[in-house]
Fold these 4 entries.
Entry 1:
Amino acid sequence: MKNVSIQWLLGDENVSVCPMMPYSQLVIDFLDQLSTVLRKSVNPGEYPDIISIAFWCRKGNILKLKEQAQDIESSLGKGLVFHITPSNVPVNFAFSFFFGLLSGNSNIVRVPSKDYPQTDIICSAIKQVLCDKKYDSIKRGNAFVKYGHEEEITDEFSSMADARIIWGGDESIKSIRKSPLKPKATEIVFADRYSFGVISLAAVKNASDSELKALAHSFYNDTYLMDQNACSTPHLIVWKKDVMGEDELMIKKTFWDAVAKEAKNYDLEPIKAIDKYTNLCAVGMEGELEVTTVNRWENLLYVVNLNKLPQDICTLRGRFGMFFDVTIDDVNALAPYIDEKVQSLLYYGIDRDELKRFVISNGLLGVDRIVPFGKALDIGVFWDGYDIIGQLSRRISF
C-alpha cells in the first residue's frame, strides 16, 4: 500500500502468510531470545512494563502455556491477523503481537499513534532478534505500522485480514467496525471494561507490617504504574465488613496510609495533578453519589468514601491516584451491580473459591478474572473471557 500517512516500523505491505501450528518451536525460540534482548535493553526499574513483557515471553512461561493448550497438533493459525492496539497503554501492542505469533499467524500490528519510548525500545529489540536468519520466516510474515485515524488505511488492512483484534474504547470500536472483514474472518474485541477490588477488613487488621507493605506495593503496581488507564486496574475498593466496632475506619486508614507511602514513588506531573483535582471536583458536584468523606494524602492519593454504591459502578473512575471506597456486609450484595462491563475482580484476604461461587451462583454477566492484588496487569492467553489462541487458530478434524 503506497500511502505517505503510514510509517512502517517493521516490514512492509508484502507480508508473507503461511500459517503454523500454535506454539511452534520457532516462535518459542524467537520469543525467548527477544526476552533476553529486552532485559538487556533497559535498566532495572526504568521501564517496569518492558521488564514485565520480557518476563512474560521467556521460554519457561511460554512452555507452561503450551502445556495447558489442547489439540495443538491438529490446529493451524488462521492466516493474517490485523491488530489495532490502544493509544493509552504503551506496551499492549507487544502482547497482542505475541498472541498472533503463538496462535500460528502472520501479523500486521498497528502500534499506538502516540510516541512512547517503550514502542521504540520493543521494536528495536524485535528487529535485532530478526537479524538472525533462523527467523527469516517470522521477519517476512510480520509488520508493525503507525498511522492516525485514516479510515481508508484501516479498510485496506481489514480487507486483507483473516482475523482482527481491536483494543479500544466502545466508540473507537464502532468506528473501526465500519471497515469490513472477509466473510469468514474472526474478530476479537477488547472494549471498555471496569475492574474493582474486594478487601477483608479483618485480613488488613491482622496483617503484619511486612504483609501490609507488600499489599500496598502490589496495589501501587496495579494502579499507579498505568495511571489507572488499564482495563484491569481497580478504581473501586469494596471492604468486606468482617470486624466489629470502630476498628473499620482505622483499618482503612492503615491501608491507605501504606498506599500513600508507596505513591511517593509516583511521578505526578502537574497536568496529572490538575486532571485529578478536576475529576474530584466533578465527583463533588455529582448529586447521585452518596459521598460521606473525601480523604487526601497531599496530591498523591484521593479516596472518596461512599455510603452506598450507585447503580452503575462503572461510573466510579479515577486517574493518577484517585479511588472510591465502600463497605459491605456480604460479597453477594455486589451481584446487582455487576454487568458485562466488569472485567477483573481483585482480592485480598477473601477466599478465592468464595468469589468464584459468587460469580457462578449469581449467573453474573461480568467478571472474567478473579486474581489477587499484584496480578491485575498480568495479561494471559485467556483475557476478557476469550480463549485468544483458540480463537485465532482453526482446528482441523480428522
Entry 2:
Amino acid sequence: MGRNICVTAIAGAAAFALGGCAVGPDFHRPPAPDVAGYTRGPLAAQTASATTHGGEPQRFVRALDIPGQWWTLFRSEPLNRLIGQALRGNPDLDAAQAALRQANEQVLARAGGLLPSVGAAIQSERARAPVAGALIGGRPYIPTFSVTTASLSLFYAPDVFGGMRRQIESLAAQAEYQRFQLEATYLTLTANVVIAAVQEASLRGQIRAVEEILRIDGDELDLVRQKFRVGVVSQADVLLQKAALEQTRASLPALQKQLAQVTGRLTALAGRLPSQEVRATFDLDSLRLPRELPVSLPSRLVRQRPDVRAAEAQLHAASAAVGVATANQLPQFSITAAFGASATGSETFPGSGVWSVAGSAAQTLFDAGALLHKKRAAVAAFDQAAAQYRSTVIGAFHGVSDALRALQFDADALAAQDAAERSAFASLDLARRQFRANTADYLTVLSAERTWEQARTGLVQAQGNRYADTAALFQALGGGWWNRADTGKRRSVRGR
C-alpha cells in the first residue's frame, strides 16, 4: 500500500503544481446516512444460548474494532493455514493486484504531462559537393564532407484551466477504485474460504449423524427380525424397518456429493486444480464462536466497506471527468522551442547554431455541439455514479442488517433445534424400551426414529448456521482491512 500512498501524493502535488483554478466541480465526499442503527427496532444485547456445541451466546458490542485477520477468532489452525494458501495462490487476487499496479502507473504517466517534455536528436550526414573544384593531377577535385546536427526540442502545454489536473484527478480516483476492488477481492476470498470450511464441517457432521442413524436403524432391524421369528411382529414390520434403513442409506450419496463439491470449491479458492485437492478437513467441534461481535457505527460503515469506497472512487472519477469535459471547451495553449547546432568536418562550412520559440492558442469555433454534448454526457455519467453509490450504500446497510438478524434468529433456531433433538431422542429411547417390553407397537418406534433423525441432522445444520452467520457479519462490516499488517502504512478509515 506504500505505492498507493506515493501515487496519491504525486497526483495531489501535480494537481497544485501550477496553481490556479481547475474548472468543473470539486469533489466532496458524500455524507454518511443519518441513522443510528441497522434495524428498525432495538438490537438485542446478545443472542440466545443453547447447551450444545456452537450454542454459546454472542454479545453485540457497538464500535468494537475488527481485527485484520478476523478469521483467527474461530481459533482453527487448519482454517488459518488454508486461508494463507488461498491468499498466496488465488489468481483473482493476483489479477486485482495487477490491475492496481496498472492504475497507479497510469496516474504517474499522466502526471508527467504537467511538466515540459524535452527531446534530443542528433543527425550525421556524409555528402559530396555537386560542383567540382580545382584540377588536381589533371582531374577536377570534388570535395566530400560530413555534417553533424544536434538539437533539443521542448514542448509545454500550460494547464491554464486545469483540464490536465482533472484528468490526473480522475485517474487517481480510478486507482483508488482499483485499490478497494483489491480489498473487496481479499475480503470476498477470505469470507468464502471460511463459509466453505463451515459448510464442509457441517456436511461432515451430517454424514456422521446419518452413519449413527444407520447404526441404530440396523440394531432396530435386528431386533424386529428377532421378534418376527418368535411371532411378536409381522413380516410387514420387518419390511418397514428395512425400508427405513435403506431410505436413510440413500441420503448418504447426496451429502457425500455436496461434501465433494465444497472440497472442490475450497481447492479452487486456494488456486489449485482438482487433482491438487487441498488436504484440510474441518469439524464443527474444532471451531469456536467469537463471544463478542462488533457492530460498527453506521457513520463508519461507509468508510469500512470496500464496495462503498470503490463506488465513492467511481463517483470521484466521474466528477473529475466533468471538469475535463469543461476544460476541453476552453482555449488550449502550447509552447514549443527548439535549439540546435550543426558542424561539418570540412573547413569550408563552419559550425552554426539555430533556435526557435513559438506559442499557440487554439479554440474550437464550430463542432456542431460535440464538446457541449460530451460535457452533458459527463454530467449524466456523474449522476449515474451518484445513484450507483447510493444503491451500494443501501445494499451495505441491508447486508449488515441481514447478518445481525440471521445471528439472532439462527441462535433461536439452534436453541429450539437442540431442545427438539433432546426430546426426540428421549421419545425414541422410551419407544424402543416399550417395544422391547412388548407394550408398544412397532409403528410407534418407527415414527419416533424418523422424528429423531430429522431433529439430529437439523441440529447439525443449525450449528453450522451460527458459524456461517458470524463470518457473514465480519464480511458485511468490511473485514478489518484497515488493521491488516500487509497494508503497509495504515490509513484511518475516517480519512482517505
Entry 3:
Amino acid sequence: MENNETHSDELLLYDPLFETPPDTVIRDTPGRGFWGKAPVKKALFVIVLTLFVGSSIVLSFRSLTKDRFRYEETEDGVMLTEFVADKTDTVLEVGPVFDRDGQAVPGKAVTAVRQFAVCGNEYTSVILIGKDVREMPDAAFYNCTSLLAVLVDPANPAFRSVEGVLYRQENGRLTELMLYPARNYLYRALLGLGEKEPADAAQAEAFAARALQLEETSADWLDAQREDYPAQGGPGLTEAESAALLSGLRYGIAPEVTRIGEMAFAECDTLFEVTIPEGVKEVASMAFFKCGELRSLDLPETLETIGSDGFSYCEKVPDIFVPAGVKEIGHHAFFGCDGADVIHMACAENDPPVLGQDWVPKKRKLFMHDVPVLYGEERRGSR
C-alpha cells in the first residue's frame, strides 16, 4: 500500500520561494565580455555602494547644519521660507535678510513669508514683522509654543499687532485675526502691570525675560485656574499680578474683524474665555482646535461659516448654540467637545446648514453615539 503520510517537519520547512537556494555569489556573465567578468562586477558594486553611503552621509550632514534662515527670491522681493531656531533665538526679526553669519544683507528686505515657515518653534518668544512684509498666510507661525507676541512695524500697511496679537488689515481697518500667540496672556498681563511694548529686538529680549520670570512665579496659580477657574489669588503673587494674569486668560477679538483665520488660536491652552464680536462671518479651519481650557462659546449672529475642526477638542465648552445665519459647518467642527450634552441650532430642522462628516461631538454610554442636535432653538441669554 502506498504511504501518503506527510511529516509535519517537511511542511514547516518547505517554502516554494526557497525551493532552490538563491545564488548570492557574483559570477562571470557569459557573453558580456569585460563587463561580465566577476572581478569587474565586484569592483563596480563596491564603487556604487561607496558613492551611495558617501552621499547619504553628506546629505545627513547638510540636514544637520543647514542654514537657520532660508529665503527664496520672488518677483516682488524676498520670501522667508524656513527658520530653524535654537535656544538663543528668543527674538525673531522678519524683515532683514540675514546671511549665514547672521548679518543683515544691505539693500534686501523680506516681503513675504511662506506657510509654516516658522513651525514647531519652542524657543522664540517675540516675532518682529518689518514694514515691507506684504504677503503672509494664516499659518506662517504655527505651533510656536513659547510665543508671547507678534509685533508689527507701525509703517506696515498689510498687518498690525494689537497687544501682541497679529491681525490683517486693509486701508487701516482690521479685517482678520491671524494669530493669537500661545503665551499671549503673559504679554498682556505685563502690559496691564505697566510694562511698555518693546520697540526693538533688545527691548523684546528684556520683555521676554520678565515674562518668563512671571510665568515661573505663577505656575501654581495657573494650575489652580485649570482646576477651579476663576481661582482667587496665588502664592508668590501680588493682588495686582493675580488680577492682570486673570485678565490675560480672557481675550476680546477686535470689533471690526470679519474673519478668524486658520489655526488662529490652535492648541492654545491658556485661553479660558474669548469674545467673538458681531460682524465675524467666518471661523476658519482649526481656528480654535484643541483650545482645551476654553470655558464658554458665544457665536455671533453674523456668523456664516464654521470651518473643518473649527472648535474640535474644546473639551470644556458646556453649551453650544449655532445661530440661524450659519450656512456651512465643516467636518469635525465640534468633534471632541465632550463637555456639551446637546447642540442647539437656531435654524429649522428642514433647513439645516451644509454639514460636514462627524461635525457633532460623540458621547460614550454603553457605546459611542452622537450628541443630540435640537433645531428651532433660541439663544439662552443675550449677547
Entry 4:
Amino acid sequence: MFYSLSFYSFVDMLHQIHPNKIRQVLLLSVVILLAILISKEMYFFLGGFMGAITLYVIMRNWMIKLISEYKWKKWLAAITLILSAFIIIVLPLSWITSIGINRIKPILHHPEILTQSFETIHQYLINQYNVDVLNADNIAKINVQLISFARQTIGSTMAGIGNLFVMFFILYFMLVSTFDIELWLRKHVPFKNSNVQKVLSEFRSMVYSNAIGIPVVAMVQGLIGLIGYWIFGVEEFVLMGLLTAVASVMPVVGSMAVYIPLAVYQLSVGHTWQGIAIGLWGFVLIGSIDNVARFMLQKKIANVHPLITIFGVIIGINLFGFLGIIFGPLLLSMFIILVKVYVDEFGTYDSDEKLTILP
C-alpha cells in the first residue's frame, strides 16, 4: 500500500512539472554527458587548443588589418600569420629545446654525474659550516625528482609535436572565421553587453601578459645568467643559462634554484672568487632583472597579481605539463574574471549600505 501511494505521488508530481522543463533537463543532461565524454577523449589535445586560442588573441588585430585595410584573402592572411608564428616562435624554441635535450641526455644516461656534484657540495657544507642538508637520503630524493622532471620534460616535448600540429590546424580555422567567432560570442555568451566587452578585454590583457610577459622575462633572465656563467668560467654555461630561464617561472624560488647551488658548487671545488661572483651576479643582476622586467611588462600589458602567477603555474604544470607555465595563470585569471562577471550579473548590492573595516 505504501509503495503504491508513493508511486502515485511521484506521478502526480511529474504532472505538476511542465513538459518543457522535463525536455530541457533531459537535453541538458545529454549535452553535459556528451561534453564530458568528448573532453575526456580530447584531453590530450587540450594544450594545442589552448595554444590556438592564445595565438588567435595575439594575431587577431593583425588578421583584421590584413583583411580590412590591405584586402588580403582570408586564407592567405591566415597562412601568412601562421608561418610567421612558426618562424618567430617555433623554430627558436625548437633549437633551444634541442640544445637543452642534448645537454641533459648524458646526465639521464649517467645519473652518477649529478650525484657526484651534490656530494661535492655536501662535503663542502659539512667541512665549512657543519650543515648536513645534502646527506645521502636527501641526495637520492633530489636525484629522483630531478631525473623524473627531466624525463617528463623530454617526454612532454615529444608529445608537444602532436599538439603543435593541432594548434596550428585549429588556429587556421579560427583566423579565417575571426568575424564569425566574435559575432557568435557577442550573441550567445549569456552576459550583458558591457560584461561581454569586459570579459573579452580582460582576457586579451591576460593572454598578452602571460603569453608574452612570462616567456620574455624568462628569456631575459636566462640570457643574463648565461652571460654571467660564461664570464666566470662555468663549463656548462649554456645549459645553466637555459635552466635559469626555466627556473625563473618556478613559484617562490625562481632562478635562485639554479645560481645559488651553482655558486656553492664553485666554492666547493675551490673556485672561490667564481662562486662569490656568481652569487653576487645572481642576486644583483638576475634577481633585479626579474623584478624590473616583470614590473615594466605588467605595467604595459596587464597588472597581474603575483599570487595569480604563482598558483597559476602550479595548477598549469599539473594540467598541461611545461606549457602550463603560460596556460595555468591564464585559466586562474579567467576564473576570477568570470566570478566577477557572475557577481555583476546576478549579485545584489545595496548602494546605501556602507562598507566597514573591522579592527
